[in-house]
Amino acid sequence: MQLIEDHGLLRFLTCGSVDDGKSTLIGRLLFDSKAILADTLSAIEKTSLKRGMQDVDLSLLTDGLQAEREQGITIDVAYRYFSTGTRKYIIADAPGHEQYTRNMVTAASTANLAIILIDARKGVQPQTRRHSYLAHLVGIPHLVVAVNKMDLVDYSQARFEEIKADYLAFAAQLGIQDVRFIPLSALKGDMVVDRSENLVWYDGDTLMEILEAAPAAHTEHDEPFRFPVQYVCRPQDSTNPELHDYRGFMGRVESGSIKVGDAVTVLPSGRTSIVKAIELGGEPLREAITEQSVTLLLTDEIDISRGDMIVKTDALPTQTKQVDATVCWLAEAPLDRARTYLLRHTTRETKAKVAAIEWRVDINTLERQAAERLQMNDIAQVSFKLAQPLLTDPYVDNRGTGAFIIIDESTNNTVGAGMITKLAA
Amino acid sequence: MMLFNRQQTQLKTLPHLDWLEAEAIHIMREVAGQCSNPVLLFSGGKDSICMLRIAEKAFRPGRFPFPLMHIDTGHNYKEVTDFRDKRAAELGERLIVRSVEDSMKRGTVVLKHANESRNKHQSVTLLEAIEEFGFDACIGGARRDEEKARAKERIMSFRDEFGQWDPKNQRPELWDLYNARAHKGENIRAFPISNWTELDVWQYIQREGLELPSIYFAHQRPIVRRQGSIVPVTELTPAKAGEQIIDLQVRFRTVGDITCTAPVESDADSVEKIIAETATTTITERGATRLDDQASEAAMEQRKKEGYF
Ligand SMILES: Nc1nc2c(ncn2[C@@H]2O[C@H](COP(=O)(O)OP(=O)(O)OP(=O)(O)O)[C@@H](O)[C@H]2O)c(=O)[nH]1
Ligand SMILES: [Mg+2]
């Protein structure tokens, strides 16, 4: 028996300024789609009551940490899950506070759709801009601007249109094209799952309808095949003599697809070969597609190890010891130009030094300014010199081979995120 | 411009179980690639049974690049520990068992009273085992849908040398670029099935035809009803004076320490029936079955801060 028909999986996040109602919206979405179970509901009812609230505080569903409940704010991303008749959803509830922007970036990096909330009374805020900019920067293909708390502005269409015009002016500056607007009240449930008497002037889809129709694919355009090798399987000690010469290259298809018989190049060595077999758990496959974890076997004996990349011979990435990237600085300690950092890109790691900080962006005016240092939450264009070559594509073409993280070796913390822009010659 | 139109995408996408499996394989291989001495925690429960299948898909025809380990409270159902041993033997992989009772003998675990549940003391034994073997990463089968503090945890979760989780200061975790780096003495907890729900687990068990300990399926068991919970009557958990023991048709949704795991009333005796029940249940997995989490609103967060899985 197959209870849930499969339309794949959609990952989305809620973001926007502090208190715009992100957590409440997720609570509402889960509540109205009947994904909250009785005991969870009774627990948050009890807590709401204890805090002297009249209605059930739906934000308690995702604000799971003690500190969050005490302060009524979101500090770190919460992940929630639900499925409709047709697909599974992974929701990330991001914090609105500027201090926790790095957690919003964490949530955004894996999302395929972002719901940006705006409090109808307050309109577009600096943090609305920051989150929109970040959502756009990490390449989330679908943006939905939800004008929330419509109940507090008498469900005014004029107010909705005003905010929409404001936002569009800003979005045009950023080059954001695919954006939709929806008026709603997360608290009352208007236009979340159910339509609303209060918003008869709005004839667009409900939020749930938008989610159900959004494409599930992480990327919607064809990309060249990229297979960073994670692990090499050499079961020499096996008692099975057939396995004596087995060399399996294990990894996840970051982009594109591959078939048995395809011509491939192994980088950085540049050696070429043919795909002899594709396996999953020892079982043969004819083809592997994007996001599938498989094992590749090649016809030639080539020395390949973790950090190498197998690609189709007809579309090679750039091999480079210098990258230019848009960087989000995520750590409290500022970027120190004198220091050496570690870059992790696909399954490769290399030491890196800052060659130049080209500019830093002012999130309000989108102006580019000169900068010597980067502070937490800064977004800047930075070029790096690398100790080892990376195998890259521009991030806009390929998220998998265009992204890297910056690690501080003294603490092992992830201190920055980079998206490769143009490629140095 | 037509937006949000599904016809627009010609690319093939993975059905949701395949996607979840591919993500989990990728995470396990990252641990194997980045860490020098990882271990996979295997209890014999349904989540860790799925983890073993994922490990097979990730590493066969090779051996697992890590041993399996169970932290045994000494209060586990025999059906489950027998299954644990059998499964490890079938796979031909090394199983390490470390027991809370040994920590009690060493004096590193001190119970407040003889009947106190040993469940939370697993943290101590786990940390001792990590030190004994020098493990730099533990791969576990925790899911974010289980509990509100778990819903907040990263896939690669950093623990300091006391095993503590700092929920207000987690490492950013972007894309699928996991950072499993840790200094000596520190530790990474990796959760490959973070994004799975209880229903996903059962659907995966069905699809893969995985065998489970018998107590996951409906069976007759003597129980008492206590404060809305069904408490199994065992040597460790006898009926209290005045309580009425009845035989009930039950199954376990989660199997853990006997003293804090309760079954649910059910006549689902097959995976198909369990899936049907899971899809329509009105109570969460832990809500129905954990006698320890109901103690306080932040019980799990507190335990995790102290080194619990
Ligand atoms: N009247 C009204 N109040 C709302 C609505 N949505 C949310 N609220 C209230 O706004 C307050 C903040 O809501 P949250 O959901 O916690 O806001 P948030 O955006 O998640 O906040 P952070 O995560 O801390 O940035 C709460 O008191 C909610 O009850 C709405 O549609 N109408
Ligand atoms: Mg919130």
Describe the structure.
- The complex is a heterodimer of chains A (425) and B (309).
- Chain A has 425 residues and is of the alpha+beta class.
- In chain A, 19% of the residues lie in helices and 35% in strands.
- Chain A has a 6-stranded mixed beta sheet with strand order 2-3-1-4-5-6, sandwiched between helices. Chain A has a 6-stranded antiparallel barrel with strand order 7-8-14-11-10-15.
- In chain B, helix 1 packs across helix 2, helix 2 packs across helix 6 (198-208) and helix 6 (198-208) runs antiparallel to helix 7 (271-280).
- Chain B folds into 2 domains: 15-199 and 299-305, Rossmann fold; 215-289, no CATH class.
- Chain B has 309 residues and is α/β, with parallel strands linked by helices.
- Chain B has helices spanning 16-34, 46-59, 78-91, 100-106, 122-133, 198-208, 271-280, 285-289, 299-305; strands at residues 38-41, 68-72, 95-99, 137-139, 156-159, 187-190, 219-226, 229-232, 246-251, 264-265.
- In chain B, 32% of the residues lie in helices and 15% in strands.
- Chain B has a 6-stranded mixed beta sheet with strand order 3-2-1-4-6-5, sandwiched between helices. Chain B has a 4-stranded antiparallel beta sheet with strand order 8-7-9-10, with no helix packed on it.
- Classes of the chains: A alpha+beta (425), B alpha/beta (309).
- Chains A and B meet through helix 2, helix 3, strand 2, helix 4 and strand 7 of A and helix 1, helix 2, helix 6 and helix 7 of B.
- The structure holds guanosine-5'-triphosphate and magnesium ion.
- Guanosine-5'-triphosphate binds next to helix 1 of chain A.
Task: Fill in the keyword field for this structure.
heterodimer, A: 425 residues, alpha+beta, Rossmann fold, Elongation Factor Tu (Ef-tu), domain 3, 35% strand, B: 309 residues, alpha/beta, 2 domains, 9 helices, 10 strands, 15% strand, binds magnesium ion
SSE order and pairing:
The complex is a heterodimer of chains A (425) and B (309).
Chain A: E1 9-16, H1 22-32, H2 38-50, H3 66-71, E2 78-83, E3 88-93, H4 101-109, E4 113-119, H5 126-137, E5 142-148, H6 157-174, E6 179-183, H7 207-213, E7 226-233, E8 248-252, E9 258-259, E10 263-267, E11 271-280, E12 283-285, E13 287-288, E14 293-298, E15 309-312, E16 318-329, E17 340-345, E18 348-361, E19 368-369, E20 379-392, H8 399-402, E21 403-408, E22 413-423
Parallel strand pairs in A: 1-3, 1-4, 4-5, 5-6
Antiparallel strand pairs in A: 2-3, 7-8, 7-15, 8-14, 9-13, 10-11, 10-15, 11-12, 11-14, 16-20, 16-22, 17-18, 17-21, 18-19, 18-20, 21-22
Chain B: H1 16-34, E1 38-41, H2 46-59, E2 68-72, H3 78-91, E3 95-99, H4 100-106, H5 122-133, E4 137-139, E5 156-159, E6 187-190, H6 198-208, E7 219-226, E8 229-232, E9 246-251, E10 264-265, H7 271-280, H8 285-289, H9 299-305
Parallel strand pairs in B: 1-2, 1-4, 2-3, 4-6
Antiparallel strand pairs in B: 5-6, 7-8, 7-9, 9-10
Helix pairs in contact in B: 1-2, 2-6, 6-7
Bound molecules: guanosine-5'-triphosphate (GTP) and magnesium ion.
